[in-house]
Amino acid sequence: MPRWKKYSLITVAVVLGIMLLSMLVVPWQIKEQGSNWFSENTSRTLHIEKVFFNPFTLTVEIEGLKLSEQKSTEPFVSFGRLMLSGSISSLFDLAVILDRVEMDDPFVNIELLGKQEFNFSDFTRLGDGKPATPTKEAEEPLHFSFNNIQLKGGKVDFTDQTSAKKSHHQIRELSLGIPFIGNIPYLADEYVEPQLRMLLNGSEIRANGQLKPFHDSLETSMTLLLDEVDLAFYAFHSPIPLPVDLKAGVLDTQIDLAYRVSSTAQPKLLLGGDLALSDIDIRELDGR
């Protein structure tokens, strides 16, 4: 056998061996490293039933994930299935490019324990007391392109433990379709329709967007209407401390959103419409 052919066969065999080995190593790493990180850095436990990795299609599937509440076995976040389908273009563009993201039956439990204190506030304090990692002043952001994001069967529970009646709100049958989001030029072969649907405390909320094809680009658009939003209410529920105390304020908007991606130019987010703020009362933290 010629030497070049022998070396070629050895190279192919090594590459195939590494890819087949990765089918075992990658799932093990995701399950073990993920569980170990949460047990070492939080008072929560992470359980994953199954992980699949296909190196030939660059696809990862995670089934039966459950992240517990602090010092409890009750679920904080869970989902039935998460599928991430990567693109070979990630290697050439030096970016994280996913052609498809699918999540089935996600669940999130959110509890307000006090002003700007939630049942997930422990995550915002993970870096407290640790020296800051030096960063480069001109460090570039992560380059990414996530396409065809689909969420089905979502559930969200929100409980206000600070209220006298411990008010409880529910989102059920949450479905979401996002065609694309990213910060690099990239176009996939096909896209899902933009849409949002859910039952909020039993009432249906639905919003449908539009996909508009252009030459070497694609645009998705949607109109957002908000009437008499109580800004003080949402300021009180902010998960992070605010530099001011928002006593009162009302927001009304009619905003047209358009997001355009291209194979040759940077993505663009276009905003238009009206925004009105009224009855504003903002104080210093000492009351001034």
Helix content: 10-25%
Q: What Rg, in angstroms, do the CA atoms define? A: 23 Å
Q: Which structural category do the helix and sheet elements fall into?
A: alpha+beta
Q: Estimate the global geometry from the Cα principal axes.
A: globular
Order of helices and strands: HEEEHEEEHEEEEEEHEE
How big a fraction of the residues is strand? Answer: over 45%
CA distance, first residue to last residue: 87 Å
Number of helices: 4
Give the biggest sheet: 10 strands, mixed
List the helices and strands and how they pair.
Elements: H1 3-41, E1 46-54, E2 59-68, E3 75-86, H2 89-93, E4 96-104, E5 107-114, E6 117-118, H3 121-124, E7 144-160, E8 168-182, E9 195-200, E10 203-208, E11 210-214, E12 217-230, H4 231-236, E13 245-262, E14 268-283
Parallel strand pairs: 4-7, 5-7
Antiparallel strand pairs: 1-2, 2-3, 3-4, 3-5, 5-6, 7-8, 8-9, 9-10, 11-12, 12-13, 13-14
